[in-house]
Amino acid sequence: MAQAAERNRVVIQEGAMMRFHPQTSYLRDLLEQGAIGEVRLLRGVFTFTLEREGDIRWDPAMGGGSLWDLGSYCVSFARAVLRVEPVEVFAMQTTSRSGIDTNLSAQMRFPGDIFVHIETLRRSGLEDLQPGDDVMVRFAEGPKGLVVAEIEVGQA
Questions:
Q1: Cα→Cα distances 152→49, 54, 101, 136, 155, Å
Q2: Helices (H), ranges, 52-146
Q3: What CATH fold (topology level) applies to the domain 40-152?
């Protein structure tokens, strides 16, 4: 596919909607306008409980694991918002019997010493939340403040 795209001068991209979501554009604009000052930290958490036996996300031969399935969105989001590539990456994981990562915690350092922390969890405890419960998600931190989104559970 990559060779065909190169020959035809086209770009191949996964259809990850968050890169083009209005909320992402708004956050990028806030950061570029200096609304929180110099960006120091971004945090991303993507988690859900996966209990289905035989799901391809448990299969290492199919690219299973929380980093490839969930973490890729956190990494892509950080790259899209900051518009630069990480210069350093470190990660720790827990693995299943089949060898895939079930939980992962990673730190990335971007130019300007901007740190990005991501967590991907297969068993999160979020299943205990009930509709109407609020979850606060912290996106970015700077000397002037935070950018935070409030998500209501059960509201899609």
A1: 18, 31, 28, 9, 6
A2: 66, 72-82
A3: Dihydrodipicolinate Reductase; domain 2 (3.30.360)
Residue 90 one-letter amino acid? F
**Could you tell me the residue ranges of all domains in the chain?**
40-152
At a CB cut-off of 8 Å and minimum separation 6, what does 41 contact? 114, 115, 116, 117, 140, 141
Reply yes or no on whether the pLDDT at 22 is more than 80. Answer: yes
pLDDT digits 0-9 by tens, 33-48: 988 888 898 888 887 7
| 52-88 tens-digit pLDDT | 777 888 888 887 888 888 888 889 889 988 999 999 9
Residue found under tokens 């068993």: 123
